[in-house]
Every structure is written in structure tokens, then in C-alpha cells.
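quick one, 392 residues, struct below
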Amino acid sequence: MSYILFDDVSRKSLKPLTYIRPVCDIHIGILTIREKWEKYLGEKTSTLTEEYLSVKFPIEFSDSMILINGSVCPTPKLVEAINNLSLNQVLICNDFVIAMKKTKEDFISATDDIDKVEVEQDFIKINNTWDIFAFNDKAIKEDFELITKGRKSQTLSSTNNIICGENIFVEEGASVEFASLNAKEGPIYIGKNAEIMEGSVIRGPFAMCEHSVVKLNAKIYGATTLGPYSKVGGELANVVIFSYSNKAHDGFIGNSVIGEWCNIGADTNASNLKNTYEEVRLWDIEKNTFVPTGQTFCGTIFGDHSKCGINTMFNTGTVVGISSNIFGAGYQRNFIPSFAWGGTAGFKLYELNKALEVAERMMERRGLEMSIEDKNILRYVFNQTLKNKKLR
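---
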């Protein structure tokens, strides 16, 4: 049996976060969606995604396969229903496919001979970029239970001020000194070799993954997630930060998603509430227009490999594409395309060779080498950007 996580139509509305990854590799809660499934299933997964991503994220066939919607987060009930599927049965909910069981032959021939099994929706499904921070509270709580069940936390230092310590779990190698941790409203998870520096004040639900760092005197409100090897400072509220990204200095970001390999300049602020208290509309890259979010609080969706300079100001509901470099005084526009260089004074194209050079340099600083597959993915998106402005 092999398990394959597939992209559904939601990958289009999840741009720019799906430009360089399948939907299942989006971070929400403590784990990525793929990591959640692999932990529940006890098996590795492969991926059915866009052709340009398939070299890095290949599909692995077998005689018997279960295909699972990569935008759906697992629950025990859902995993049980999927494992009970018979050949050519399809698990559905509200007219979308959650999972199906196929042989390799049936998959290739795409037979219509299927039997539908319906379930109620008591799980998280990511359809839009803002769903990531909107559902992060629930996702952290579910992941916390999954990861910590039957395990014992490391002991926190007596220098810390702790509220509801039974809802705090500390992994091996983590360092926390002279911090205030309040887990009354939700759990706090501190990953392996993570560090919370002195003077930080944190309210749950909160998750920091392995080797992440909270800088001195940071103020963090739930529900916030810090991905592996990320560094944060200043003030955050309901923010999901992917791996290897930095917001290391003062400044406020709320109700936002920050992709991988991003750097947020000192004193950058991102508005998350309109002065009129109206519903926030957000730019949809695929539809090439602003769409309603249903959210009163909505900050910034920040694409992978993008950077902004010191004192950058983002309007409520701003979308930034991938590999952009933003700077300049005053409020930035609500949509900044991929591979853009500039700011309030105007933008020009961020040349591919320069963007790759900066990406390589940032990865080298973390002791990593940029792979040929990663370069080709950025090259593909860059070329599509030139061909079709809507993709920017």
C-alpha cells in the first residue's frame, strides 16, 4: 500500500504559497499537513502535484494506492474512514473528494466505476491563504494532542513565570529562561533545541518548531506558529511562519502567513484591521482580482524568498509574491507581484540570476546548499511570471 497526497483546485487560490510546494507541505499548527498524515498513518507519503514540482515531489505508484486530498488535515475519525476504504471507493464530503483507493491500473485508466462514501466535515480543509492563520488555533491544539500523548515534557527552569504549566510541552534541548508563558487559553509547544530568550511574553496557543528562536522581550499572542529554524522578535498575533524565515526585530505583524526563506526588516509593521472595521478583501493571484475573506482581521500573505527593508509599512490585507525585494517609505500597495524589486516609488523586475544569488546566499548562511530542483522551480515560476502578468 502506498499513500499519495494530491493537490486539488485549492492550490490555485493558495498562491503564492503553492508556487514552490504542493498544498500538503503548507505549515499549519505544529506540523505541515504532510507531516500530520505521515504521523497518523505511520507511513511515508508521495505527491501528485503540478508537473514542474514533480521532480522534487515525485509520485510513487504501487499495486494498491490510497490517494488523499493534501488540503485536508487528518483526524482519527478521518484516518479510520480512509483505511476502511475498499478498492474504487471514494470518500467525499460536501461534493469534494477527501480520499480514494485505487490500483495502479485503475488510476492510469481513470475508470468511472466508483462507489462513494460520504462523511461529515469535522476536520480542517485549507482552501484559501487566510484559512492558514484562521484555523491555526484548532490546528495547534490537535497537533499538540497528537505529538505529546503518552510523553513527558522536559522541566522548565524556575526562572520562568508559568500559567497552566500542564498545557506546556518542552522538547529535549530547548532553552527557556526568564520568560512568561501563559497556556490558559491554549497549549504551548516548544520544539527540540528551540530557544525563548529573556523577557519574552507568550500566550497560547503557541508552537515553535525545532531550532526556532524567540528574541529578547518579544510579545506573542496566540494562535502563532514558528516554523523550524525561524527567528522572531517584536510583536506577533495569530501568525504562521514557515521554515527558515526571520522577523527578528521590533515591529508588529498580525493575522498573517510568512513563507520560507523570508526576511522582515527591523520595525516593519503590517496592519491587520481596517480603520472602517470592514471585512478585508485580499488579492487572488489566480483570479486576478480582490476577493472577500470573511475576516475582519487580516494582515499579510508573504511569499517564499521575499524580503522587505527596515521600516516597511504594509496595508491591511496585502499579498506579496515570491522572490520580491521591497523597500521605501510609506504604505506599500496591497498586491506586490513575484520577482518585484522596489516599493512605493515603483517596481521593476527582479532579475532571475540576482534572485537566485540572494536565495543561495541566505541558504548558505544556514549551512544549506540550494538544489538544482529548487533553482528550476524558481526559474519556472519566473518564466511564467514573464508570460502571464496574472501569475504575478
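The chain has a mean pLDDT of 94.
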